[in-house]
Amino acid sequence: MTWLRIGWFYAVGVLAAAQLGKLSSLATPISQALDLHLSSVALVISLLELAGALLGLAAGRIVARLGLRRSLVAGLALLTLAGLGQGLSTSSDGLLAWRALESVGYLAIVVAAPVLIFHSAREADRDSALALWSSFVPVGVALGAMSAGLLAELWSWRASLMAIAATAGIACLTTWAVPAPVEPATLPRAARRRLPPPRAWALSAAFGCYALFEVGMLALLPSFLVEQTGAGTGLAGLVTGLASFATLAGSIVAAWHRRRQRSGTGPLLALALLLPAALLFLLFRPEPGLAVAATLAILLNAVSGIFPGLAFALLPKVAGRAGLTGASGLLTQFGASGSLLGPPSYALLVAWWGWQGAALAGCVASLACLVLMRAALHPAMPGTGQRLLEGCP
Question: What is the pTM assigned to this prediction?
Answer without folding.
Answer: 0.83
